[in-house]
Design brief:
Radius of gyration: 27 Å
Shape: flat
Number of helices: 7
Number of strands: 2
Strand order of the largest sheet: 1-2
Strand content: 5-15%
Number of domains: 2
Helix content: 40-55%
Distance between the termini: 30 Å
Largest sheet: 2 strands, antiparallel
Length: about 180
């Protein structure tokens, strides 16, 4: 497709109508979820998941152009700017300050040897602690109840939310290929 035809196609795209159609569709889906079976919810989830992935792809392509324009407009300086769409839309772009990092694999001990006492002048040393995977088993093996209590009170258990993902490449259960 030529660039002129692509431009004509995007110019005729009415964002207000598209927004309302999508919003109405999502509202209808949301309203129907309470009465839907788990199987129906999975089907709806797989549709929304696929659409979400596609929306992300389109947004990522748009972000490239918006980011490039903002960086040019701001001459690469730290700060933020807002770019306006041709109707109600706008995009805010924030250019953050650069951050210095030590690359993975860099031999810190070598730097410490070279710099000696001056190492602390150039680098902050951060120490982190995390419980061993066998923490609870190890604490349970202690005979001293007070030490057990101190150790158990020193940590908290965070139950993680189970991850859910969907896909739409499985043939229909109906057997006729309809989806």
């Amino acid at each position: 497709m030529s660039k002129a035809k692509a431009s004509d196609k995007t110019q005729s795209f009415d964002t207000r109508i598209a927004y309302q159609v999508l919003l109405d569709g999502l509202n209808t889906i949301n309203e129907s979820l309470e009465a839907a079976s788990l199987e129906r919810k999975i089907e709806i989830g797989s549709v929304l998941w696929e659409l979400g992935d596609r929306v992300k792809e389109v947004l990522d392509a748009i972000k490239v152009d918006v980011r490039t324009t903002a960086v040019t407009d701001m001459e690469g300086k730290v700060g933020h700017t807002t770019l306006e769409g041709d109707d109600l839309g706008e995009a805010t772009v924030t250019i953050p300050s650069a951050v210095l990092r030590i690359p993975k694999g860099k031999d810190i001990e070598d730097l410490k040897r070279v710099l000696g006492q001056r190492f602390a002048f150039f680098f902050e040393e951060t120490i982190t602690y995390k419980p061993h995977k066998e923490y609870e088993d190890r604490v349970g093996q202690l005979d001293d109840a007070l030490t057990q209590k101190v150790l158990l009170d020193a940590v908290e258990r965070n139950e993680l939310t189970p991850r859910v993902s969907f896909r739409r490449n499985k043939p229909s259960k109906r057997g006729n290929g309809d989806k």
